[in-house]
Amino acid sequence: MSAPRRVLFGVFDWGLGHATRDTPLIQALLDAGDRVEILSTGRALKVLQQRFGEHCAFHDVPSIASPYTKTRHFTASFICSVPRMLVTLKRARAGSLDILRRGRYDLVVSDCRYDLYDAVENSVLINHQLRFKAFRAMESVAELWLAKTMGLYGRIVVPDYEGAHNLSGLLSHGIRHFDLSRVHYIGILSHLRRTDAEKDVDYFISLTGPEPQRSILERKILMQVRDLEGRVVIAGGNPDVRQEESVGTVEFRSYLDSRQQEEMMNRSRFFVSRSGYTSMMELAELGLTQALLIPTPGQTEQEYLGDYYEQQGFFHHVDQYTLALKADIARARGFKGFVPPWRTEESVRRFMAVVGKESAVCAN
Fold first, then answer.
1. Rounded-to-integer distance, Cα 340 and Cα 165, Å
2. If 168 and its partner were Cys, which of 114, 160, 236, 281 is the partner (CB 3.0–4.6 Å)?
3. DSSP state for residue 186 in the 8-state scheme
4. Does residue 85 have a pLDDT over 90?
């Protein structure tokens, strides 16, 4: 049996999706006997500490600044944010490099933390976005930059399927400017599991993602939710607050942990959420075909995915600013959902095959 490896696992913190999808991978590394340390920040770090607190060491290293804005004029906001984002990326790299120099890791895994990489041969990037679907004039430039950045990693793990039946569309397929021999499509990843629970919740509305848009959507949902007939459960995404209240058939919970989220989704007949990629993998994992997607305004990845799923007939999506909850739910019932070729258990097995080979230690 090979000796335990020392693994540094970096997790992006814009929302909780990266933290939740990495949970089965971190658990698999622990089960294999590896010693895992987790690098993240904010709510994502808090969730991972709650899940793995007794089994992992943790490093709080702030990541790149978010460009999100309260308005829908994301393009101008993004351009204005670029200098600040570059400064914070440099700062994040300094923090990650300090951890790397003190740690001497056998394997470094980064889920979209572009500040975290070691020697090419022992650095692994998890990313479903190998192409930026941004402003059309900038796509080629952005794709070249991303290809250069991904060149710092010896292996690229894509949580999607390689064939035409896939969840990420052009975000991770038909890629140019990159050595595709480094890319490994392993399939979807989710911390949730399908159960035979009774379907006693008519609508489950999950409000996660970065602020301030998360709170803006929450207020909009609360104004319309009483138009729905049946039992409604609304869950926020703040692990710092634990609050529950009910008004008629509507129940609000400020946060659901992994077990509660799994239970609620399995009990739900209809699901409303952002079109974040992690949420889409959760739908596929649980076999949920009835859903309404509301992309985060200005988050070009979610906006692209919403359009892609609509075109493929998987799910209906709607702009946050034109949301008519009852009418959009009615329209969404005509879509077929996404049936995955395989689920997380097989995807984890494929991930472990990719990272299973012992990697050389690099002291940097």
1. 8
2. 160
3. -
4. no
- Homologous superfamily (CATH) of 6-188+343-355 is Glycogen Phosphorylase B; (3.40.50.2000)
Q: Was domain 203-332 assigned CATH 3.40.50.2000?
A: yes
Using CA atoms, how far apart are residues 272 and 293, in angstroms rounded to an integer?
6
Contacting residues for 141 by C-beta, under 8 A, at least 6 apart: none
d(CA 19, CA 276): 13
Please write down the HEC assignment for all residues of 9-63: EEECCCCCHHHHHHHHHHHHHHHCCCEEEEEECHHHHHHHHHHHCCCCEEEECCC
Residues 354, 348: Cα–Cα separation, whole Å: 10
265 is written with which tokens?
A: 């989704």
How far apart are the C-alpha atoms of 91 and 233, rounded to whole Å?
Answer: 40
Tokens for 176? Answer: 């140019």
DSSP string, 269-336: SSEEE---HHHHHHHHHHT---EEE-PPTT-HHHHHHHHHHHHHTS-EE--GGG--HHHHHHHHTT--
- Which amino acid type is present at position 229? E
Residue 78 pLDDT > 70: no
pTM tops 0.85, yes or no: yes
Amino acid type, 137: A
Domain with CATH 3.40.50.2000 in the chain: 6-188+343-355, 203-332
Handedness of CA 47, 48, 51, 54 (dihedral sign): negative
Please report, as a single letter, which amino acid is at residue 332: A
Sole residue written with tokens 């300094």: 94
Between helices 258-267 and 277-286, what is the axis angle to 10°? Answer: 60
C-alpha distances in Å from residue 201, one per residue of 27, 230, 267, 313, 317: 30, 8, 6, 24, 21
pLDDT of 94-143, one tens digit each? 899 999 999 899 999 999 999 999 999 999 999 999 987 765 666 677 77
